[in-house]
């Protein structure tokens, strides 16, 4: 049985090593996405004008008035002091062609005092240019930058499947790491003085044992993040009732209909302020998101700069029908069924933000560890593969030599006869 599990672990490791290596390194980087992006692109993050800032709503009005080709789909309501206000935009439909206007950007950085656009970029585009690097790495982390195929997000599905395999293989790896009860101490040791292959083996085996629980959390949350709708929510609903997710529920949301009106962002913010008070939320409305394809608004409640949620279970979100203002649902961290809270905790755990700065440091270190485990596992496999090849070659050489000896002896016997 152990031999079969060793082979299974070996081939699963080979199949997933490159994916996990890349996911580990990129995960270590994007734990600091905001800080790194700001360091690389100060002109995109630092406001040019040191003057009182306008509201996000006013800035969005100015941006849309200056360029009728675009519509603002997401904006923070208040800029961080000294920073630009970054908006997400999409093209409007050109009445002449019935096609979206051509835009080569999806994100803009606006001076909060003047409404001047300081920078533009297409978020997540495949590019190593400094302005694009961090968003590219962020998107690569969970999609490998693979395209949609037949309406399926192939990259997200692939990384989710890799996460499932990783979960299964982690259980096998732990069992293999303890071959006997008497030798359990060896599974935690690192033979630093030996170096070479011995240290490589210990980094892979003992390193994995020391952080096994954390690896399982990262693997599970990666599955939850990538395959929430098709896999995780149906499984969780078998054990706990789940509150319908307004974003994914076709019974709640509807596609826009011809002639539908759209409430102003100002009206939605007003509704959000009233709803936030009714829910006793501590944070004010912090950002507005408009999903045209769902004809719905979402409002996040957070202070300026805290759109990711710096600590805890993240930020509250509420949703409204864009035409009628009818409430569509809410996601309040820490509230709901056991299944609801399980789903809420996935991103904070995966990003480390549940523990604040310390959690992000831990996740960054864990990403490097995942890359090291993948690399050492591959090195171990290559060494054993070469050893098997040498052994097979030596055996073949021995058989050839034996055959030659037999042929030579046979030839001598025939000559003597």
UniProtKB/TrEMBL annotation:
The keyword Transferase does not apply. The chain crosses the membrane at residues 12-32, 157-178, 209-229, 361-382. The keyword Nucleus does not apply. Keywords: Membrane, Transmembrane, Transmembrane helix. InterPro entries: PepSY-ass_TM. It comes from the Bacteria. Pfam families: PepSY_TM. This is Putative iron-regulated membrane protein. It comes from Paraburkholderia bryophila.
